[in-house]
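W.,

You were right to be curious about this one. When I first looked at the sequence I had no strong expectations either way, so I just let the prediction run and decided to look at it fresh. Below is the sequence, 53 residues in total, followed by the output.
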Amino acid sequence: EEVEKVVSMLQEQARTLSRYGMKKHLCVLPMYAGLPYNEQMRVFERMPPTVRK
């Protein structure tokens, strides 16, 4: 629950920065032991050059 709350806060901050002209978009991904395997593996997926994890 705490991780999801922080992820939401960071996603909102990333949207705000994007509106103010930040060149790279942020992709905020949770990572913790209780997260299902397929969701954990998302952190290893390749992102476009304009996206930062």
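Here's what jumped out at me. The CA atoms of residues 31 and 40 lie 6 Å apart. And, maybe more interesting for your project: The two ends are 21 Å apart (CA to CA).

Coffee later to discuss?

I.
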